[in-house]
Design goal:
By secondary structure, this protein is an alpha/beta fold. It folds into 2 domains: 11-112, Leucine Aminopeptidase, subunit E, domain 1, CATH 3.40.220; 144-462, Aminopeptidase (3-Layer(aba) Sandwich). The chain is 34% helix and 20% strand. It has helices spanning 21-26, 30-39, 68-73, 77-81, 98-110, 141-159, 167-180, 192-195, 199-205, 245-248, 256-270, 316-328, 343-349, 361-373, 408-417, 451-462, and strands at 11-17, 48-52, 58-66, 88-93, 131-134, 184-189, 213-219, 225-230, 232-236, 276-286, 298-300, 306-308, 334-339, 355-358, 379-380, 398-399, 426-430, 434-435, 445-446. The longest helix has 19 residues, at 141-159. The chain starts with 10 loop residues before the first strand and ends with a helix.
């Protein structure tokens, strides 16, 4: 997922806008015009024309960019065409504004991703002999390669089955990343979570044979303090409120929040932001044995707030509560929380559009605008104070699973917000972390959501 060297011999690739097709075609040599007409090239999105020279060798390629409506509907159109291109090196010819050019070049890199860990052969895999692009000179190639590498990390972590990605393996990936960028990292395990006053993380993970833990990374010695918190539930059975089989099938992705903040942290460290970065990941498996937490149990959190556990399958907000309280104790300039938290978010906005919650209007505006600019869409939802009573059961300070099923993503966000005193600089993203079907530059499977939007927005928010 890297660009070809600038000096590589490259085949011209023309990205052709549907509205500009006629003018572009009229500027081509007669043999090219004849070939395009004979093959019916209409610049439809992702349509490819392989144009030979007089000897029959490939001389140039045209790829349709579609209409403005097509491009609003589908991102990474060029990336969607990459797997169908012959292996080789290409040089892009285009008439795109900078933001669109960056999107399409990034899409090309992302199109090279495949998860191959458990495949014995790459035979038939179009990415085994990839088409490569010379980075357009006007782009920051290093930045785009960093984003692509971070996205590959996120996808790999989510795609790996829980048999090979439990809390210990997530820890190993976390420590590898820390070592790569010269960060310091610490891990708190098992019963030590109780001694460190992280009781909710312990309560969720204690029933698993795989020891629960808190992963803690620090990087950077100066600048604004930014803390990222990600839900690392490596598999979620639902606990004693056991999920049915059809709901458990994708639960390897329940650590998608952890994978996402690791991808974002990778981008920040690789690009050398002048910040003091901290990353906190509660890494657990929500399993069942005689020590499992029970419906109706009351737990005391790090912050001192008591929580009535009315559904053991609403465990993500519990582990995040302790991690957020720990993060907040340092009063960082911003706290970002990412989690595959609620089915309610998917009902409201579907799999592609994560909601986010914050009291901070400038942060919300920056995040929404950045998501639009980099084609990593997010949507602001309200932290509606009127629903606060829904998470207050009376017998304890908070209820982890309000009855009734309404506004489930909002009430989950309100629950998390109770553990952050600096709530004005707090944003929570309820991500899905999964592509149900293949799309341009993204196969079916794990995917980062909101990370590129945050990477674009946070410098504005933090003033770096």
């Amino acid at each position: 997922m890297r660009f070809a060297e600038a000096g590589s011999r490259a085949t011209p690739l023309h990205l052709v806008d549907g509205a500009g097709l006629e003018a572009w075609r009229d500027n081509q040599p007669e043999r090219v015009r004849t070939w395009l007409e004979a093959t019916g090239f209409a610049a439809k999105p992702g349509q490819i024309a392989l144009i030979p020279d007089g000897a029959g060798a490939l001389s140039m390629v045209a790829v349709g960019h579609g209409s403005a409506r097509d491009r609003r509907r589908d991102r990474f159109i060029l990336g969607g065409a990459v797997p169908r291109l012959p292996a080789g090196v290409y040089a892009l010819h285009h008439d795109l504004p900078p933001e669109e050019l960056e999107q399409e070049a990034l899409g090309w890199l992302l199109a090279g991703y495949r998860y191959r860990r458990f495949r014995q052969s790459a035979e038939g895999d179009s990415a085994s002999a990839p088409a490569r692009l010379v980075a357009p000179a006007e782009l920051d190639a290093d930045r785009l390669e960093t984003i692509a590498a971070a996205e590959a990390l996120t996808r790999d972590l989510i795609n790996t089955p829980a048999s090979h990605m439990g809390p210990e393996e997530l820890e190993a990936a976390f420590l590898d990343m820390a070592e790569r960028f010269g960060a310091t990292a610490s891990v708190t395990y098992g019963e030590d979570l109780l001694h460190a006053n992280l009781p909710l993380i312990h309560a969720v993970g204690r029933a698993s044979a795989r020891t629960p833990r808190l992963l803690d990374l620090r990087w950077g010695g100066a600048g604004p303090r930014l803390t990222l918190v990600g839900k690392g539930v490596c598999f979620d059975t639902g606990g004693l409120n056991l999920k049915p089989g059809n709901s458990m099938g994708l639960m390897k992705k329940d650590m998608g929040g952890a994978a996402s903040v690791m991808g974002l942290a990778w981008m920040i460290m690789a690009q050398g932001w002048p910040v003091q970065l901290r990353v906190l990941i509660p890494a657990v498996e929500n399993a069942v044995d005689g020590t499992a937490m029970r419906p109706g149990d009351i737990l005391t959190s790090r912050k001192g707030l008591t929580v009535e556990v009315n559904n053991t399958d609403a465990e993500g907000r519990l582990v995040l509560a302790d991690a957020l309280a720990l993060a907040d104790e340092e009063t960082p300039d911003a706290i970002v929380c990412m989690a595959t938290l609620t089915g309610a978010a998917r009902v409201a906005l579907g799999p592609d559009l994560p909601p986010f919650y914050t009291w901070d209007a400038p942060l919300a505006e920056a995040l929404a605008q950045s998501g639009e600019a980099v084609r990593d869409p997010v949507w602001r939802m309200p932290l509606h104070p009127g629903y606060a009573k829904m998470i207050e059961p009376g017998i304890a300070d908070l209820d982890n699973a309000p009855s009734g099923g309404m506004a489930g993503s909002i009430t989950a966000a309100l629950f998390l917000e109770r553990f952050v005193e600096q709530a004005g600089r707090f944003v929570h993203l309820d991500v899905y972390g999964w592509r149900p079907s293949a799309a341009n530059a993204c196969p079916r499977g794990g995917v980062g959501q909101g990370t590129r939007a945050l990477f674009q927005a946070l410098p504005q928010v933090l003033g770096v």
